[in-house]
Amino acid sequence: MGEDWYEALKDEFTKPYFRSIRNFLIAETRKKSVIYPATENIYNWSRLTPIDKVKVIVVGQDPYHGPNQAHGLSFSVLPPTRPPPSLVNIYKEMKKSVPGFEIPKSGDLTPLAEAGVLWLNTSLTVRAGQAASHSKIGWEKFTRAAMQAVLSRPGGKGVVFLVWGAHAQKAITGFDTKKNKVLKSVHPSPLSASKGFFGCNHFIDANKWIAETHGPDEVIDWTVINPK
């Protein structure tokens, strides 16, 4: 875990719910269950996006449950894995709305994470082949604490929440919507993208808000993942 995140969240590690998460994962390992992402990547989001650099939080649900997919960022996959359907639709919306954006062949969102976009799933692990299999073990409390740590950082700079689908919208219930910008739509999955995700203009609207509140030099360069 990134040092600043560890410092902000260290009190969570001694709470009963977090000990329960740990014991659950140990039990999974003893049963020889395959868990994604790999242990070293569970907190990858924290190393790539320091707390004081977060400008946008993209709330996902749980990691991809297939091999060679999840690496600790919501929606993101590493090469040579091809972008999954939801990420393909995210790219399509970026192409339509962001000037100069070109759809990459890679599904790796690391450059955007380093630019200040926190790609955070509400559950940080999953059993191979079983979507949402770790969604009830307590991760939601921990990732909510992570989001709260961003909102409570010194200086009081707000963030843009991109919450796509009912699960993501529920995950931020109770957060300050006056100090922070919340952009909602349906999920970008093929089942729902045409019902409101396409045309949502979230990537441009996020930058408009960031420019107004953080300054024009702080906007996200969404083209950083353009094909090289």
From TrEMBL:
Gene3D superfamilies: Uracil-DNA glycosylase-like domain
Cell compartments where the protein resides: Mitochondrion; Nucleus
Keywords: DNA damage, DNA repair, Hydrolase, Mitochondrion, Nucleus
PROSITE patterns registered for this protein in UniProt: U_DNA_GLYCOSYLASE
Catalytic residues (positions): 62 (proton acceptor)
Residue intervals of the Uracil-DNA glycosylase-like domain: 47-210
GO terms under biological process: base-excision repair, AP site formation via deaminated base removal
Main location: mitochondrion
Gene Ontology molecular function: uracil DNA N-glycosylase activity
GO-annotated cellular components: mitochondrion; nucleus
Reactions catalysed: Hydrolyzes single-stranded DNA or mismatched double-stranded DNA and polynucleotides, releasing free uracil
Recorded superkingdom: Eukaryota
SUPFAM superfamilies documented for this protein: Uracil-DNA glycosylase-like (SSF52141)
PANTHER family cross-referenced by the UniProt entry: URACIL-DNA GLYCOSYLASE
UniProt similarity note: Belongs to the uracil-DNA glycosylase (UDG) superfamily. UNG family.
Protein's job: Excises uracil residues from the DNA which can arise as a result of misincorporation of dUMP residues by DNA polymerase or due to deamination of cytosine.
Protein name: Uracil-DNA glycosylase
Species whose genome carries this gene: Serendipita vermifera MAFF 305830
